[in-house]
Amino acid sequence: MPITVLLGVQWGDEGKGRITDALAAEADIVARYNGGDNAGHSITVGQSVVRLHLVPSGIFHARCLNIIGNGTVVNPVNLLKEIAEIRAAGIEVSPARLRISRAAHVILPGHLALDAAREAQGGIGTTQRGIGPAYSDKAARVGIRAGAMDDPEAFAAMVRAHTERVNRVLTHEFDRPPLDVEAAAASYAEAAAQLRAYLDDTTHLLREALRAGKHVLAEGAQAALLDLDHGTYPFVTASSPTIGGVMTGLGVPPQAISRVVGVAKAFTTRVGGGPFVTELQGEMALRLRGTGANPWDEYGATTGRPRRVGWLDAVALRYAVWINGVTELALTKLDVLSGLPEINVCVAYRYKGRVLEDFPQDTAILKACEPIYETLPGWSEDIRGVRAWHALPANARAFVQRVAQLAGAPVRLLSTGPARDQMMWLEGVQS
Ligand code: IMP
Q1: What pLDDT is recorded for position 239?
Q2: CA 374 – ligand 1 centroid, Å
Q3: How many domains does the chain have?
Q4: Calpha distance 416→405 (Å, rounded)
Q5: Are residues 33 and 171 in the same domain?
Q6: Ligand 1 centroid to residue 331 C-alpha, Å
Q7: Do 69 and 208 share a structural domain?
Q8: Cα of 302 to ligand 1 centre, how many Å?
Q9: Are 240 and 166 members of one domain?
Q10: Nearest atom, ligand 1, residue 115 CA
């Protein structure tokens, strides 16, 4: 059955965008199943660099239909800005190429304000895109679904009522100024008038496409360790980036999924708060993060925040591979490790004198864990752009082999540089 899932198996920013871009070349449909415009990656199109936040990466492939699924949350104003940016690069974004599920939930001005207010009181380091408050309203059954944009006037009334409700919370609980209710309603009504042509029943659309044998790429945002259930709660996002999110976030049956590609970096990064067992400070952190001079250095694509960096954590990786049923790994940024005399990989945790081989579900335990490293020899050769397995130094190959073994999944794709073609498909470096 023809669904390929692509998801992150660390804390996000694994370089999923470029892998999706490569896989989208073979897909008829690319569908986002979770999250909102908290995600972000840049794609170079000719002379322009376009930042995608919510629009699926298939938009850059003329034959792809792109779906924003019911499991996502949509900020209509920001989505229109994103569409405008894509169009400015000469790419067509018509309703024939992009569909928004009528059941996706809308991120409202009140959600953004509440996210900011909570963060100001000492939050978890969110992207402040209103994600948590929007999903909270969805679960509380007081959210507004995208389908409501069909009628911009009625939609404006809903936005007005929501903003008034949030204003009471902002002023009483957070001691913050109220939002301008009329401005919020007007801007959302205008956005609705532009977006309503994109609304669709995407569950039925996907069913028909799958029945017709079309190939669907389900594109995950964020990653396994940021999953609301399986991540490092409460330092997580509010959606389900893991495999279950594909079924609930698109309305497709599990039997339709034939391939699950887990994307991992050759080291680890994380933005925002929360435990990070292999985190590095000092010289080595600077070395892995980069200076920020290059677009591929480790700074958040949505917020510009410097990412926390550390060695590859194989305990966390093994856990993410298992819960997602990853059938193959894509390992990115191998070139960043070139020139290091030794490379550490965390193979277990030490917790209160005990050795843990399994990723603990309790965040307090994870916070108290220390890494147990296996040290592998590095390589001095510059491998940027190397596109053949046997052209890699033996130590680089041994590193990839060891990662596959520790993770419990074969590595099928390896990226060795930031450019679109600096990657190689492998027969499968076996675990
Ligand atoms: P939120 O999704 O904005 O609510 O943020 C919750 C947590 O997820 C924070 O630690 C964010 O830094 C993190 N996060 C959200 N989106 C991304 C992403 O696309 N990449 C990496 N981290 C993310």
Answers
A1: 98
A2: 29
A3: 3
A4: 20
A5: no
A6: 21
A7: yes
A8: 9
A9: no
A10: 4
Ligand 1 binding residues, C-beta < 6 A = 12-13, 38-40, 124-127, 129, 131-132, 221-222, 226, 235, 237-238, 271-272
pLDDT digits (tens, 9 = 90+) for 68-117: 999 999 999 999 999 999 999 999 999 999 999 999 999 999 999 999 99
Same domain, 366 and 417: yes
Whole-angstrom CA distances from 310 to 46, 89, 100, 147, 358 are 33, 35, 37, 43, 19
Is the domain of 68 the same as that of 56? Answer: yes
CATH code, domain carrying 85: 3.40.440.10
What's the whole-model pTM score? Answer: 0.95
Picking from 261, 278, 306, the residue at the C-terminal end of a domain is 261
61 is catalytic: no
- Write down which residue in 153, 178, 195 finishes a domain: 195
In Å, how far from its chain's centre is CA 341? Answer: 31
Burial (CB count within 10 angstroms: exposed 0-12, middle 13-18, buried 19+), residue 94: exposed
pLDDT digits (tens, 9 = 90+) for 39-81: 988 777 777 788 899 999 999 999 999 999 999 999 999 999 9
Neighbours of 302 (CB within 10 A): 17
Question: Is there a single domain that holds both residue 384 and residue 236?
Answer: no
